[in-house]
Amino acid sequence: MALLLSLAIGRVASRHGIPRVTVYLLVGLILGPHVGLALVDPEATLAQFMLGSDTEVPLRVLRELGIGFILFGVGAAFRFTTFREVGPRILGLSAVEIGLTSVFVGGAVYAATGDWRLGVIAPALAVSSAPSATLVTLREVEAEGPASRCLMLCVGHNNLAALLAYPVMAGLAFGVGGAGGATLSALIALIGGGVIGFGAAVWLESITGRRELVLLGILVVLAALGIAHWSELGGTGLGMLACFSAGLAIANGSPHSDELFRYLENTVYPIYVLFFIAAGRDLHLDALAQGGLLAALFIAARTAGKLYGSHLGMRLTGLADSLPRSLGSGLLCQAGIALGLVASLEAIAPAETVQLRQVVVASVVVFELIGPFLVRRVAVRAGEVTLANLLPHAEAKGTEALRWVVLEFRRNLGLLKGDHFDGDSKTTVEHAMRRRPRYVSESLSFERVLKALGETGADLLPVIDHDAHFKGVISYEEVKNTLYDPVLRGLVIAEDLTSSVDDALDPGASFVKALEVLDRHHVQSWPVVKDRQLLGIVRRTDIYAMLRRG
C-alpha cells in the first residue's frame, strides 16, 4: 500500500514541482501510527494494513539499510579532485556555517531554559543535516554543478562535525564517562570503512559486469554495517560513518567507481523509498504543539545559523560570486542523525533533556517536510537543472495509453510495420541545455586550462573575453599539441588555444539541428549562444535522454 501510494501520488506531485522525497515522507506519516491509526479503530481490519507496531522491526531494518546506502553515496561525492579545486574554501565555508549555527542555537536554548548544559549539547543536535533527503532530491532533478557539489560536501562536513563533537559535548554537559572513547570509536569506524572501501577498489579492477558491480556495492555496505554492529557502534549511529568512508575510498581509488555507484543506485532505489516512508512513520506531529516557545526558538536559530553562516562563509572564502546566496537553505534538511543523537541523549540524561528532545523531534518534522523543496530550489536557482527536468513529462492517459499498448502489441506480433518518432516542435535546445557551464577566460594560463578540462570531464571548454562575450571553444585536439612541449606550456594562454565557433546553437534550435551540429563536429557537447552571450552547453546524452522520455 505504501509503495503504491508513493508511486501514484509521486507522479502527480512531480508535475507541480513537489519533490518525491516529501511525498514519501507524507505517505509514511499518513499510514503511520501517529496519523493513520488514529483515524480508525486500532482493532479494525484496516489498521492491519497500516504501518503500525507490527511493521516496526522490518522498517527499522530498512531504515538502517537505507541510510547505509545513502551515506555510501554521499562518500562518493568527496572526490579528491574536487578538494584540489575548492576543498579548502568549502571547508572554510562549512566551518563558518557550523560555528554560527552552534552559537545561535546554543544561545537561544540557554536563553529560553537557563540551563547551560542544554545550551552546550543543543548545537550538536542542530548542526547535522539530512544527507538522504539532499542526495535523493538532487539526483531526482539530475542537478549538476558547483552549488550541488558544494551542498553535498557541506552536508558531509555538518554530519561529521555533529557525530565527532556530540560525545565531547555530552561529556562536558552531563559528566558521562567515555567521551574520548566514543570519539575514538567514530574514528575507528571511519578507518574501518576506508579499509573496506580500499579493498573493494582493488577488487573492482578485475570486475566489469554490471551484476558483479551491484553485488560488490551491496557487499561493501553490508560489511560496513556488520562491522559496526559487531564492534557495538551500530546502536549509536556512528557505524554509518563506515559506509561514508567506504564510499569515499572507492570513489577516489577506482576509475570504475562511477559505474558502480550508478548501477547500485538504480538497484536499491526501492530501499530509499521505504527508508523515507519509515522516516515519515516516525514523525510526531504532536511534538510541534508540545515544543512551544523553545521549539520556535530552536527552529528559528537553526534556520538563521544555516542561512547567515553560509552567506558569511561564502563571502569570507571568495565563493560568493560562484554560489547562490540561498545555499544555506539547502542545508536545512534534518532527520536520521539528529534523531539518533536524541535517542542516545535519552539514555544519558532522560530527565534533564526531555524538553530538548521534544524540541529536536519537532524541528525534524518541520525541516524534513520543507527541506527537500528548499534543496530543489537551490539547485534550480543555481542554474544546475535543465529546463526539461522541471517541465511535466508528456504522459499518455486513458484511451490514449490503451491505444499505445495495443499498438505495441501489434508491433511485436508483426502486425504493424515500421516505427516512427513524432517529435514535439515545442521542445528545443533550451530545454536540454546545461545552464551556467564551466568556462575560462581567454587570458588564462595553459596549466589552468588543462586543470579546468580535467575537472569538468567535458570534451569542450567554452572561452569568454574580458567583456564576458563568447569567443569560442578549447578542445582536447588543441590542448594535446601543446601538452608535451615544455617551452610552449609556459607561453600559451587560453586565447591561443581557442577555436572560433561560427555555428553556435541558438536556444530555440531543434534537436535535429543540434544533433546535426554535434555530428558535423564529431563532439559530444556544443555551446548555446545568443547575442554573443554564453547561455549554456547542450550534451548529446541529454538530448538522447529527452528523446527517450518523449
In short:
This protein is mostly helical and 550 residues long. The chain contains 22 helices and six strands.
Describe this structure in words.
By secondary structure, the protein is mainly α. It folds into two domains: 2-385, Up-down Bundle (Na+/H+ antiporter like fold); 429-549, CBS-domain, CATH 3.10.580.10. The protein is built from 22 helices and six strands. The strands form two sheets. Strands 1-6-5 form a three-stranded antiparallel beta sheet. Strand 5 and strand 6 form a beta hairpin. The protein is globular, with a radius of gyration of 25 Å. The chain starts with a helix and ends with a helix. Residues 418-423 have low confidence and may be disordered.
Q: Assign an overall shape.
A: globular
Q: Approximately how much helix is present in the residues?
A: 55-70%
Write the CATH architecture name of the largest domain: Up-down Bundle
Distance between the termini: 29 Å
Largest sheet: 3 strands, antiparallel
Q: Give the integer mean of the pLDDT values.
A: 79
Strand content: 5-15%
Figure out the total of helices.
22
Class per helix and strand makeup: mainly alpha
Q: Using only CA atoms, what is the Rg? A: 25 Å
Secondary-structure element order, as H and E? HHHHHHHHHHHHHHHHEEHEEHHHHEEH
CATH topology description of the largest domain: Na+/H+ antiporter like fold
Uncertain segments are: 418-423
Order of the strands making up the biggest sheet: 1-6-5
Q: Quick one: CATH class of the largest domain?
A: Mainly Alpha
The tally of structural domains comes to 2
E-strand count: 6
